[in-house]
């Protein structure tokens, strides 16, 4: 495991390494859930945050998510204007 190698290389206590792994797992879950379209309010609740601002710290927008959102917006805009494409 990558984290275990880092722990040994830098003489990091095992208890701290476990805490770091837990944090990385939560961050990874939040990023994946948001990138797959789960609303941030739901992610916040799953993580047990009482303030959505805390969840926003975990949330990082991915290029793929941004591309998907812009495509979806463009599709909706196109339908609104009866198929007129914008270029």
TrEMBL record:
Protein name (database record): Tyr recombinase domain-containing protein
Highest rank taxon of the organism: Bacteria
InterPro entries xrefs: DNA_brk_join_enz, Integrase-like_cat_sf, Integrase_catalytic
A GO term, aspect molecular function: DNA binding
Annotated ranges, domain Tyr recombinase: 1-71
GO biological process: DNA integration; DNA recombination
The keyword Nucleus is annotated on this UniProt entry: no
Species whose genome carries this gene: Parabacteroides merdae
């Amino acid at each position: 495991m990558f984290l275990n190698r880092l722990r040994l290389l830098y003489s990091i206590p095992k208890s701290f390494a476990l805490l770091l792994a837990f944090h990385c797992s939560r961050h990874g879950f939040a990023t994946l859930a948001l990138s797959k379209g789960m609303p941030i309010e739901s992610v916040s609740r799953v993580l047990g945050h009482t303030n959505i601002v805390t969840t926003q710290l975990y949330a990082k927008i991915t290029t793929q998510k941004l591309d998907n959102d812009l495509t979806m917006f463009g599709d909706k805009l196109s339908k609104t204007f009866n198929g007129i494409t914008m270029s």
